[in-house]
Amino acid sequence: MGQIRHEAMNRHGGFDVVCACDTHANFDADIPLVTDPTRVYDYDPDVVFCCVPNRMIPDVVCDALERGKHVFSEKPPGRNSDDVRRMQAVEARHPDLVLKFGFNHRFHDAIEDAKRMLDAGTMGDLYFMRGVYGKAGGANYAQNWRNDPSQSGGGILIDQGIHMLDLFLMFADHFSDVQSVVQRKFWTDVPVEDNAFALMKNDAGVVASLHSSATQWQHKFTLELYARGGFISVNGILSASGTYGTEVLNVALNRLDQDGNPIPNPESQEVRYTEDHSWDKEIAEFHAAIAEGQPVRCGTSQQALDVMTLVERIYAADADWPGQIAATATAG
Amino acid sequence: MQTPVFIDDLPDISTVASRKSDHYRQTRNRALAEMLLDDAVSWHERACPACGQSRDLSRNFSQALMPFQRCSACNTIYAARVPDQSHLDGQRLRLLDELPPETADKPKRPREFEYISILNWIRLTEARSGHSLGKVLDYRFSSQAPSWPDAVTRLGTHRDWSFLPLAADGETGFDDLRDRLQAETPDAVLLYGEMDRVADPAALLRVVRANLPRGSLVFIATSCADGLEYEILGADSPSFVPLDRLNIFSVEGFSQMVRELGYTALEVSTPGRLDAVILQHYFTEIENADVPFWSGFFRSANKDRLRDLQILLQRSLRSGVMRFVLET
């Protein structure tokens, strides 16, 4: 992720990357490399990009803020909501600094267009949302830090499903009711979920259903938004891996019969997006926040807290889930 | 620039409304022949109306009634000589008068599907682009489709529409448009099926741009020379009615023309729905020609296959009708 951010900074301009920190320093780079995180401050940066495992994020972010650095941190923002609150407390002591989290999906062209059309009122009131985001768990699944709850805080839901939850919150603001089923089906000896299903409702009655999966053998991103006047769906999402397909937005306005009832399968417009501008837009917003004092719209610490709280509520809503984890611990 | 694709279930061939009847074609051809024989009509030769390439460098498209060329640079199909606009408009008015009125035994709202498609197109573009389109001026589509204004009244939402029907006045033929644009300053103009029919399409777009505030939108629907129907059938295409198709732009050619006129193209699409059904109709009912691959394909294709092909054409900007959204 650090390299992706570095490339985006180079494309944007206005950033002078003075140092990089990684677990090893034997890759090609045209900048100084260190392995000790505290050494980066020898170069007196104005900004720190935090691209580390979830467990380390709060420490790195709080330390950077306390040293007077603007911070861009990858998601998830730590392992739980307490991690976010800890970062928020430090952020509050440094109101002149920018803290932004990389909830990158809000910046995808298809998502922005969907938001624009809903906000314009063209589609009418939002009724429900359906989101499926999944991948095949991948090589070294059991050994990956992402599937070690002490490092990550959870499994596929907190790692990937959190993006869909963040989008749900963008469209529906807050969910008052949360139900869930959290499961392990394939990696039964790994103490994190490989599937999470959630059904949520906000106070206005907007319902959202999520399926976050590590057993989605055919990678998939689908977000459907059904409103009174029609629907919007986003299928596929442009990603660094390129495995979720082209980003395609379909939008349709209902046609009504003579009695005012919608006719099935209305004509839809399909817009295909082939270039991923999300990284550049995300960096541009961060730069504008620092250089021009513009507000951060996406990836605020409050949004981070909201989505981490929702993740926790989904885990907690399945009464059987803690028992499954406990069984793993006993067996181990 | 976005390239939306329009997807829906193809209508049955029996419902293909835009296929021109023999009577319609013959009436148009008779009118064109009358103009060709009329000494009072002045004709002028022209290069490609889209990219300006010389006629000498273009290929012959048709010699029936009058010469049509296919531009070898941008693929636009065009009449090599055209009459002045005032004569064209006068002839169109006479032909419109000859059209039989909508009768009770015809479907009550025969073009409703098309009308809703236009209105939805404008609504979605408005939402996507962030433009507020409170006032829209329709230029001449109300003459081609008399039930259009009524449909707009019934179906249009939160938008003031005005209609400027076809009228034969002024030397350029666009004086009425200039005056109306200056008087009303609409947020958008709809040119639906008009670019095909005018003698100087660039002149029409110049009038629009010169008399609209910057940032206004122009919605244009016109025939597309890149469509599979024209590529396979050429001048045999049932959609090719010379008097109605003085200009059949390609996507590339039209894009170049509007760019040179100072417009920004916000959207390009080829939402034509009928290439596949027209071609199947041609190969199964009209003509027993043996075109490699295609004749066999269309004779054996079922409705699902035709729909798949049509969507592929739309996704490839290769269907027979195109839409542009331009910003002044």
Secondary structure blueprint with pairings:
The complex is a heterodimer of chains A (332) and B (328).
Chain A: H1 2-12, E1 20-21, E2 33-34, E3 47-50, H2 57-66, E4 70-73, H3 81-93, E5 99-101, H4 109-119, E6 126-136, H5 149-152, H6 156-172, E7 177-183, E8 195-201, E9 207-213, E10 215-227, E11 230-235, E12 247-253, E13 268-273, H7 278-291, H8 301-317, H9 321-331
Parallel strand pairs in A: 1-2, 3-4, 4-5, 6-9
Antiparallel strand pairs in A: 6-10, 7-8, 8-9, 10-11, 11-12, 12-13
Helix pairs in contact in A: 1-7, 2-3, 3-8, 6-8
Chain B: E1 5-7, H1 22-37, E2 43-45, E3 59-62, E4 68-70, E5 77-79, E6 81-83, H2 85-98, H3 112-129, E7 135-139, H4 141-144, H5 148-155, E8 160-164, H6 175-184, E9 188-192, H7 201-210, E10 217-223, H8 228-233, E11 247-248, H9 251-260, E12 264-269, H10 275-286, H11 294-300, H12 303-315, E13 321-327
Parallel strand pairs in B: 7-8, 7-9, 9-10
Antiparallel strand pairs in B: 2-6, 3-4, 4-5, 5-11, 10-13, 12-13
Protein name (chain B): Methyltransferase domain-containing protein
InterPro entries (chain B): SAM-dependent_MTases_sf (IPR029063)
Organism (chain B): Pseudodonghicola xiamenensis
